[in-house]
Design a protein that fits this description.
The chain is of the alpha+beta class. Helices cover 39% and strands 12% of the residues. The chain has two helices and two strands, in the order ααββ.
Length: 76
Amino acid sequence: MEVKVSELRELGLKALQKYGHPKEDAEIILNVLMCAQLRGNNQGLVKLIGNGYKRHASAKTPTLIKETKLSALIKD
């Protein structure tokens, strides 16, 4: 089955938001899944079907404490 990348991206974003991820977080998750998918690892996006990647009930927005070109200190 062939699916346009734009359609796959749109469906993936909708699915992640459906599972409770804010749009900004969903876009980050989707970018990682799309990268893997386009390189032949077809397990990430397929897992959005069914139970999907639900946001954990106690998940918080992380706080960026310090950032350099090579690293970031993040507090949850």
